[in-house]
Amino acid sequence: MTLRLHLYLEANQLVPFDYLPTLKSAFHLWTGHNDALHNGLSLYSYSWLRGGRAGRGGIRFGEGAHWFISAPDREVIHTIISGVLRAPDLGLGLRVQDVWMQDAPEFAAGGEQPFRVASPVFIKHELEKGKPADHLLPGHELADGLLTATLRHKLRQASLDDTGAAVRFDPAHIASAKSKLFRYKQVQCRGSICPVLVSGSAEQIQFAWEVGVGHSTGIGCGALV
Asked: Which tens digit of pLDDT belongs to each residue from 150-160?
């Protein structure tokens, strides 16, 4: 049984909007030296911070922030817990106050499993090598195919069967989907807040719940709830 780690953070100052590198740094600090995690395909996902109110100059978390991290490898989660105990401060005035672990839900094969997203779904499409990639949104004719291709690639990387696995934006929500412009370090990115549908075996659906969907789950995109 794999795990999702929920972290509750104290936030004693205004948090800047571009806090994603701080989450990434904390993740790598807690997981320690692990080339497979740090340099390979991101077989994990994590949410953006929840519970804040945006204002002038940043986000205020008056009652603290909620953050979760998911991975198909149970040992990764246990390593993170050990890292949190050693170094609970993330920076930017954020400090872990409490954690709890959630077992993966039991998913059924057949049909499509709906998921909401806990961070924007980011899809890159390179038209020409060396040129800036397009960032695709729900409704684009290539979006669902790229979501599916990315999930299948990660399944194969994890030595799992990718046959029949598929992801698509939920058609019932495409018209009301919101695009989200965000910056990671100096790169401007555009993702989308739109529920998705995942189909495949129970194992494949659970894997998507763990690793997220789309590109750049390793910097906080495409986390599922």
From this structure: 999 999 999 99
